[in-house]
Design a protein that fits this description.
The protein has 17 helices and eleven strands. It is of the alpha/beta class. The strands form three sheets. It has a five-stranded parallel sheet with strand order 6-7-5-10-11, with helices on one face. A four-stranded parallel sheet has the order 2-1-3-4, covered by helices on one side. A two-stranded antiparallel ribbon has the order 8-9. α2 links the parallel β1 and β2. α6 packs across α9.
Length: 366
Amino acid sequence: MPFAPARLSDLAAAGFDAILDVRSPAEYAEDHLPGALSLPVFSNEERARVGTLYKASPFAARKLGAAILARNAAAHLEGPLADKPGGWRPLVYCWRGGQRSGAFATILREVGWRVETLAGGWRAWRRLVAARLYEAPVPAPVVVLDGWTGSAKTELLGQLALRGVQTLDLEALANHRGSLFGARPGGQPSQKAFETRLAMAIEALDPARPVVVEAESSRIGAIALPPRLWAAMRAAPRVALAVPAAERAAYLARAYADLTADGDALAQALARLRPLHGAATVARWQAMAAAGAFAPLALELVQAHYDPRYARSRARHGAPAAEIAADALTPEALPALAGQVAAAIAALGAAGHGTGQGAERPGRPG
């Protein structure tokens, strides 16, 4: 009988030895179940070839598809699956739990493995992800870690996690630092892949403890936050960091060392500011970057670009529930600062601050 999870956490609880995605590489790249191994029974080109033929002759397409699947299955059996023991228990899925996963699972069962297929395939899994993000409320009370650009919020979020505070690192899930200069190696996941990562992280939250998220806009790079999470973040109490601009600039110069090491990438990122600050200003900033004046450049960007925009955003939110002043963001100073933030979060919980979990129900995407 196919495996039919009722919630996302059922996947881990089922205890499969492996999860095998037999869709094409392009389908796998867009999104896949957590931890799934890509063992395509059709390549991208083979899938397109079979699909095109199906429009003219379903019988001929099925015959061609069976031949291709058999060849690719043989390659998988002699390759990635060659060392699997007799009691191996994998979960196999395709797009909608139909012919590709069913045929591959039949071959694996004939070997003697305890194979199960995913009922409804990836589409059924996607419905669980969408329900978690677009229909259900955020299960834990949300607290937002706020502060002017360069306040080390992301690093402090990691420090809080080390202290046992429940956190949700949206920038890590989106593989982006959430700013014009925020691109990270490897690029961002697709929107669907991000949502799978996010849904799994939210599913694992302890509802009895607050969850701390970094202040973000509704988009992190090219990724859009689900409306329910964004509404909860907007309504949540905020713990704000107050750090002098010069210290924030020094921190940014250290934190973005990967970008400053790539002169061309930094110059291109600065060029995108021309519509806002003019060609002459951007040219001067690019000259500072070329000369290695990264801390002074960061200070000008903070004062001329980021702080004015943050001030407008902060005015919409009103005063934070707590504010913590910090004179230094050095590696030696951050653990103590994280302790202050953790204490402020605990105090918010003791005071019973609301978290905005009763926001209206946003629509679910198609």
